[in-house]
Each structure stands twice: as structure tokens, then as C-alpha cells.
Write a structure and sequence with these properties.
Layout: H1 5-17, E1 41-42, H2 54-57, E2 59-60, E3 66-67, E4 76-82, H3 84-92, E5 102-109, E6 116-124, E7 136-141, E8 147-151, H4 154-160
Antiparallel strand pairs: 1-8, 2-4, 3-4, 4-5, 5-6, 6-7, 7-8
Length: 172
């Protein structure tokens, strides 16, 4: 595989999940049926499910900031964090992630001292949560840390369906 292909796929995936797609996060294209599994909820839902201490309690999975090509078409630099379950599976690089694994991607504008961008979470849920898309729950927080969407976010799930392993893309 060419060295540029994986980063390009990661970028395209992230763009759709971050709302880089013209319809925005969690919105269906005209004519598409909504998911039949749990739906994404709008702002105001249980923000407590997002681990606010992830910067100190999770492992940093990215060695440096990278252009997040999949979220908003490369507008942001990203850093990736994972809880202990996610880190173990990330390091193993085979098989599915265990229930409870959490991956968080933090974004910032690409300018030198760019302001914060959205923060996104993937959490592996129990079998049956969303079997069509690997039982992952997605959450999107805006740049101020306010929950915007959470649950089965169709735009995230559809992009992550193209990931090589359990709906998770590897970093460049």
C-alpha cells in the first residue's frame, strides 16, 4: 500500500465524522433511511458519559499532532488518546476492540497557535448496541466542550465502516 493512502483515508473519514460533509454530523443524505439502531441525540443529552479527564487518565496514542484529514477535510491537527482497553488493543493491532474501549481525538486549527476544534469519542459498546457498525457509540463535542451529538452518528459510522480493523483507522 502506498504510504500516502492510509493518511488520506484517515483524513476522509475524519471529515465526515466532524461534520466536514455538506450535510453535517449525524444528518442523512436525502433519500437515505435513518438508522434502525439507537439514534444520535442532540446537545443536552448525558454529557457525563464523556470522560473529561482523558488528557491525564488516557494514554496518548499519537506521537505528535497530525493533520486530521478525515475530520473537516484536513482543517485540523489531531491528537489521539485511548483508555487502557483501547491502548492494549491498539498496541496489539489485531482483533476487535473490547467493550469499554474508548478512543478520543482532540482537534485544533492548523494555524501556528490555532484555537481548539471539536473533540470526538468512539466507545465500544456491548453486542447489539449497533451491530451493523461494530457496536461503537460516537460523541462530538464542540470547541467549547459542549456535547453536540452522541450515540449512533450515521456519518461517523459510515466512514469508519471503511477502516481496516473494527471501524478504527490507524494513524500515519
Amino acid at each position: 500500500m502506498r504510504s500516502w493512502l492510509l493518511p488520506a483515508l484517515l483524513v476522509a473519514t475524519a471529515a465526515a465524522c466532524a461534520g466536514g460533509a455538506p450535510r453535517g454530523v449525524g444528518m442523512s443524505e436525502p433519500g437515505q433511511a435513518p438508522p434502525t439502531t439507537p439514534k444520535a441525540t442532540d446537545a443536552g443529552s448525558d454529557a457525563a458519559s464523556f470522560p473529561r479527564d482523558y488528557r491525564t487518565q488516557f494514554a496518548k496514542l499519537s506521537s505528535t499532532r497530525f493533520v486530521s484529514q478525515g475530520h473537516a477535510g484536513g482543517r485540523f491537527n489531531g491528537e489521539l488518546f485511548g483508555n487502557a482497553l483501547a491502548k492494549e488493543s491498539w498496541d496489539r493491532a489485531i482483533g476487535d476492540y473490547p467493550v469499554g474501549a474508548m478512543l478520543i481525538m482532540e482537534h485544533a486549527e492548523r494555524s501556528a497557535e490555532g484555537p481548539a476544534g471539536p473533540t470526538m469519542l468512539m466507545e465500544k459498546r456491548a453486542k447489539g448496541f449497533d451491530p451493523k457498525f461494530g457496536d461503537w457509540r460516537y460523541s462530538v463535542l464542540d470547541s467549547k466542550g459542549q456535547l453536540q451529538k452522541e450515540g449512533v452518528i450515521e456519518s461517523c459510522a459510515l466512514c469508519h465502516a471503511d477502516a481496516p480493523r473494527d471501524f478504527v483507522f490507524r494513524l500515519p
